[in-house]
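Exam prep: given the inputs below (a chain plus L34), describe the expected output before reading on.
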Amino acid sequence: MEILDGKKLSEDIKNEIAQEVAQIKAAGGNIPHLAAVLIGNNPASESYVRSKVRSCDQVGFESTLIRKDDSITEEELLEIIHELNTSDDVDGFIVQLPLPKHIDEVKVTLAIDPKKDVDGFHPVNFGRMAQGLPCYLPATPFGILQMIERYGIETSGAHVVVVGRSNIVGTPMSILLSRKAKTGNATVTLTHSRTKDLAAEVSRADIVIAAIGIPNFISADMIKEGAVIIDVGINRVEDETRKRGYRLVGDVDFDGVAGKASYVTPVPGGVGPMTVTSLLMNTLKSSRKEIYG
Ligand code: L34
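Solution:
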């Protein structure tokens, strides 16, 4: 079994981006600028956004963090989005999810200018993705594609089983891998909570993408010998032996599948860091006006 080392790969990609930024700087070009909006004090969101800002520093991007209290109104947040949409200075921005209950995530997503939607969550970008048109790909699926591609894993003709149908991971992943494109051409089965015999579906997969948010859900007895296992889950489980009081586990029983799979992504250090790197890649594309001109 080989580990799909997202941490290492994301460092490699960040080094490549840093070199491009250095060239842009040398040529007196525009330095890519990412803004992130973080509402409230969700510890996981704080950690992810911190990692995004730190990664911007690492590659030489400019970044702006806009932090607001949980008590912000929807109207106030929409005003911030309007300012970011119209700012000449900001190439792309994200509003970290989840949002407090009194704010409508759909409304917020729709308010973001698709040209600056480096998360790729706006339906315009989603629709363009589905039709194979230039767009910002959602960061987690984009990161997984990068991983599959750089490790030379063949997807053409492969049977992929995606577990979980969220708008930001499962559904776009299933569309991307079935497209007639590089790192595509797979036969994809999208499974979810109403799937009749999930274990039987997973057992047929050459590649499993687990994105359901249930710790250790995918066990060794479910998978085919030699399967590629991509674990998107990041679940915090209580662990008093750790300083933080918890540890991170994925949706896959890593130790169990390790003896049977050909490749597995670890948690942490797998898909998570690739999500952050993909956001940087989208921001670079935005500053170069590669997608929308
Ligand atoms: N708007 N909301 C918006 N965009 C996103 O792309 C996200 N996501 C998801 C949650 N909400 C979002 C993220 O940023 C998930 N996500 C994310 C980003 C980074 C990591 C995990 C999820 C990550 O770096 N994970 C590390 C461990 C981090 C830790 O110690 O907590 C890892 O190695 O998996």
